[in-house]
Amino acid sequence: MEQTNIQPIKIKSRMLFRIWGFLGSAGIGLVGLWLLIEALKFESKYSIFYLGGGLLGIVYGLITFLIFCPAFTKKGDVIFNIIEGKDGRLFSGKKYVDIKDIKRIRMGRHRYSFKGIFLMDILIETHENKVVRIPTYNILPEPEFYKAVELHIFPYLTEEAREDWISQFTEVQRKAYLEKFHQNT
Asked: What pTM value is reported for the model?
């Protein structure tokens, strides 16, 4: 296969988003722990509220930290890779999709997943009606995703997939994105 010599295009996360994710998840857990400790001292008439807020903060912080955890590792650096071309593919870890097999691609919440409550994913529907979900951990800005699709995937999509991609935006939105993308390249 010819693609072994082609270097993939890496779509990377933003460090600032990774920091915010850490502060938002671990930080809420630590604030919840502090509230719980203050509640157990019973020095205030609001101790019962501290207790409830502390327990909620700990539970929410722990859940979101566990969901975001891969974003804080090496896995969170590169969200996905693209190999351009007629026989190109999009891949992340063990998940991959040939570009010619993409029926629909978007960034959104996966409604049948607990993580979908908190995080947006890249959702790819294939012509075989399979859905491939690539987690973004909310550390990939939507404009970066749009840029990757427009510049590296869109030219190789089927006509049906192109029409679906274009239908996600108003004409003004898409024109503004395209102008911005071409200015930065």
From this structure: 0.83
Q: Which are the contacts of 55, defined by CB distance < 8 A and separation ≥ 6? A: 32, 36
- CA 75 to CA 93: how far, in whole Å? 9
The pLDDT profile of the chain, 185 residues, written as one tens digit per residue, is: 444 568 899 999 999 999 999 999 999 999 999 999 999 998 888 999 999 999 999 999 999 999 889 998 888 899 999 999 889 999 998 899 999 999 999 999 877 778 888 889 999 999 999 999 999 999 999 999 999 999 999 999 999 999 999 999 998 988 888 888 877 66
Q: Which helix (H) or strand (E) holds 118?
A: none
Work out the end-to-end distance of the chain between its first and last CA atoms, rounded to an integer number of angstroms.
29
d(CA 169, CA 182) in angstroms, rounded, equals: 18
What are the Cα distances from residue 6, in Å, to 2, 67, 81, 95?
8, 33, 12, 19
Alpha helices in the chain (DSSP H): 15-41, 47-68, 142-148, 159-167, 171-184
Residue 158: C-alpha distances to residues 64, 153, 165 (Å) = 37, 10, 11
Q: Give φ, ψ of 91 to 5 degrees.
A: -145, 155
Q: How far apart are CA 93 and CA 141, in angstroms?
A: 20
Q: Which amino acid, residue 104?
A: R
